[in-house]
């Protein structure tokens, strides 16, 4: 449960959810976008339950997943922590937060896992297999910074519009994309954090 929510925040959210207002997002959709739910969706058998009779679709979706691991208390979480401590360069520790600059890598991740490993607080994080994209040379344009070619990596985000009324689907479609590029020297951080820049894909 988010500790930053005061009782008044919860009352306001409950009032909003009970109202006839259009929620963007409603609480169910907001929870569906959390890293914990993404990790649970990656478990074998979950997509099969949600997409019955569609084994090819399930296989295509599973092929896009990086490894996502629960840190819930118990043997499964203990094993995930042990593997991350043994090979920290291969994992990322992710809290349930957005906006860039929140993920932990390398020694910072090791220190956090050592602190969290015997605490129930660890269940509010997930471990993810670290993605290793191929770096490329590019110029990042920022105010007050010299223009020079640096080694970069990019992350492509796809925008979608999803509208429903109760359980009735009204709209679900792709409406655009966002490409963020950053120098490889930065492990984490988005555009808002001042690390990445907006970019344009060049389809080939």
From TrEMBL:
It comes from the Eukaryota. Keywords: ATP-binding, Glutathione biosynthesis, Ligase, Magnesium, Metal-binding, Nucleotide-binding. One of its GO terms (cellular component) is cytosol. Belongs to the eukaryotic GSH synthase family. Transmembrane segments: none annotated. Homodimer. It comes from Ursus maritimus (Polar bear). It catalyses: gamma-L-glutamyl-L-cysteine + glycine + ATP = glutathione + ADP + phosphate + H(+). This is Glutathione synthetase.
């Amino acid at each position: 449960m988010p500790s930053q929510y005061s009782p008044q925040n919860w009352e306001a959210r409950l009032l909003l959810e009970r109202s006839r207002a259009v929620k963007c997002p409603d609480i169910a959709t907001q929870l569906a976008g959390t890293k914990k739910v993404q990790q649970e969706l990656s478990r074998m058998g979950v997509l099969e339950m949600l997409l019955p009779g569609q084994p090819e679709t399930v296989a295509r979706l599973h092929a896009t997943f990086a490894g996502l691991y629960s840190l819930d208390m118990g043997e499964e979480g203990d094993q995930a922590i042990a593997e991350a401590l043994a090979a920290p360069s291969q994992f990322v520790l992710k809290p349930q937060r957005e906006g860039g600059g929140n993920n932990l890598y390398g020694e910072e991740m090791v220190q956090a896992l050592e602190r969290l490993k015997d605490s129930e607080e660890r269940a509010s994080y997930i471990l993810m297999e670290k993605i290793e994209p191929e770096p490329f040379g590019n110029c990042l344009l920022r105010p007050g910074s010299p223009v020079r070619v640096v080694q970069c990596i990019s992350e492509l985000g796809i925008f979608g519009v999803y509208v429903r009324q109760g359980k009735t689907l009204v709209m679900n479609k792709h409406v655009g994309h966002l490409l963020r590029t950053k120098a490889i020297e930065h492990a984490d951080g988005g555009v808002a954090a001042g690390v990445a820049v907006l970019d344009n894909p060049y389809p080939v």
